[in-house]
Design a protein that fits this description.
single chain; 134 residues; mainly alpha; two-stranded antiparallel ribbon; binds zinc ion
Length: 134
């Protein structure tokens, strides 16, 4: 592909706004993009501004995701405790192999719940208070 304005010169990039080929003399380097200048330059400037603004609002999505993962973890741990309680009751009543089954399910739910809670801190946006490991 050659430059739109200088057909003899090889293009080094494409204008992000109008998709014309641009040689080094025509290309206007911008924030992560190339434009042919003029109206295209202003257009890309506005586009970049919108992208920057929308990227700051995506942190709210992270907060919601964190909350959902944490809620799931709490529910799983709650089920785990409930199963362990069932296991204890069944064991006390001497119900054969049932207590072990409940206990295994309880432990599984508990482990999954803890994993989920730990994963919720994987997202970059979290409460200001930083947890110190160990
Ligand atoms: Zn252009
Ligand atoms: Zn050119």
């Amino acid at each position: 592909m050659n430059c739109f304005t200088h057909p003899e010169t090889a293009a080094v990039g494409i204008c992000k706004a109008c998709c014309k080929g641009l040689c080094p003399a025509c290309a206007v380097e911008m924030d992560g993009a190339i434009s042919c200048g003029g109206e295209c330059e202003t257009y890309i400037e506005q586009l970049n501004k919108v992208i920057r603004e929308s990227s700051t609002s995506s942190s709210a999505a992270f907060v919601v995701a964190n909350r959902q993962v944490r809620q799931q973890g709490i529910i799983l741990i709650f089920f785990g405790i409930a199963f362990l309680a069932f296991a204890y009751l069944a064991w006390r009543d001497g119900a054969g192999k049932m207590p072990w089954l409940f206990a295994v399910f309880g432990l599984l739910f508990g482990v999954f719940g803890v994993v989920r809670l730990r994963r919720s801190s994987m997202y970059p946006i979290d409460k200001p208070g930083k947890e110190s490991g160990g």
